[in-house]
Amino acid sequence: MAKKKSTKEKKTNDERILDQHHIEYEEVSFDWINNGADALTEAKEQGVPAESILKTIVMQANNDAKDYIVVCLSLIHEIDLKLVAHELGKKQVHLADNKNLINITGYVHGANTPIGINIRKGFPVYFDERIKNFDDISVSAGKVGRSVRLKRDDLVSLVSGKYIKVSEN
């Protein structure tokens, strides 16, 4: 008799990392077509505050090819690069080159995650201080459209993250 194929997708590397560290999480999928508008609607319908869904921004500091940093902030907020540079004591920071992102992080644009980037690449991770308002947050699971929802403190601890101010509004 043939085995039934599982309807559940294979775990991502990031989910395996969470499993190895005995961190509880929930697999979440969001529809990121239409610039995330559908994802925000889905989140609202599920009772998930949009502010607790994080995007992962990869930046380069001081034009140094070896000085990359990761900043996680709410999907609905913008980042102030000058403020981030000031908060980190850097002369300047700018967004990493999207065309080269997979070579820098190992992830395609839209799949970057603080979990894998920190564990595999060692890049420091900073979180918008406003996420302290949420016990549970969602971050990419390393695949476009796939996220994990977990305890904020578990994630911050796993990646040795620090809180900073990333924008004035």
From TrEMBL:
Question: Does the keyword field hold Thylakoid?
Answer: no
Top EC group? lyase
Q: Which PANTHER family match?
A: CYS-TRNA(PRO)_CYS-TRNA(CYS) DEACYLASE YBAK (PTHR30411:SF0), CYTOPLASMIC PROTEIN (PTHR30411)
* Ranges of residues in domain YbaK/aminoacyl-tRNA synthetase-associated: 38-157
The protein's GO terms of the molecular function aspect are: aminoacyl-tRNA deacylase activity; lyase activity
Q: Which GO terms describe its biological process?
A: translation
Please give the organism.
Ligilactobacillus ruminis DPC 6832
Q: What domain of life is recorded for the organism? A: Bacteria
> Record's family?
Belongs to the prolyl-tRNA editing family. YbaK/EbsC subfamily.
InterPro entries per UniProt: Prolyl-tRNA_editing_YbaK/EbsC (IPR004369), YbaK/aa-tRNA-synt-asso_dom_sf (IPR036754), YbaK/aa-tRNA-synth-assoc-dom (IPR007214)
Alphabetical UniProt keywords? Lyase, Protein biosynthesis
- What EC numbers are recorded for this enzyme? 4.2.-.-
What name does this protein carry?
Answer: Cys-tRNA(Pro)/Cys-tRNA(Cys) deacylase
